[in-house]
Amino acid sequence: MKVLVHLACLLPIAWLVYAGFENNLGPDPTHTVTFFTGRSTLRLLAITLAISPVRKLIPKLGWLIRFRRLVGLYAFFYACLHLLTYVWLYAGFSLAAMEQDISQRRFIVAGLAAWLLMVPLALTSTNWSIRKLGGKNWNRLHKLTYAAAIAGLVHYWWGVKPGVTTPMFLTLLIGGLLLARPVVKAIREGKNGDRKPPVAVGAEKM
Length: 206
Fold this sequence. Notes:
The chain has 206 residues and is mainly α. 77% of the residues lie in helices and 0% in strands. It has one domain (2-182). The chain crosses the membrane at residues 35-58, 70-91, 107-129, 141-158, 164-184.
């Protein structure tokens, strides 16, 4: 199963390489590569956000949690490719050009913020990090995934021309997943409350 997850996550980059060799990246290959890697990042982030509520609602799919970190690492991989296409193909590795863009283009700032939020998530994706930080602290830190997804969506919307609605699907998907979190929690708490055994009358509190 893990091999299949790897293959699925590598499909976007495989398509990109194939399209490049076939000269099928459109009239503006740089824009195509940048757009495609950015959208792939958000798609994989959406999958990582979906795994938790799905496994809680459908216990039989609990095994999905084993692949959440892996999918998250692939999201960071595509985020790095997205950043690299900007730094290399747009800015030409020029610090002056990047500084100018950061000061004048707000979507660059939002994108950089999203990437920076993902860095600690990628660095602490190991079992050693979980043991070192402790489960609760690790979970708190990895809630940055939500902030990274939101920053990524802001970057996406600010980066397209007015009237373009391409980001709408991912916005609705990720927005729905963010809203699903408290809903799923309430449903689970309700079920657990129904399953609590009756307390014997006159039982002493421990």
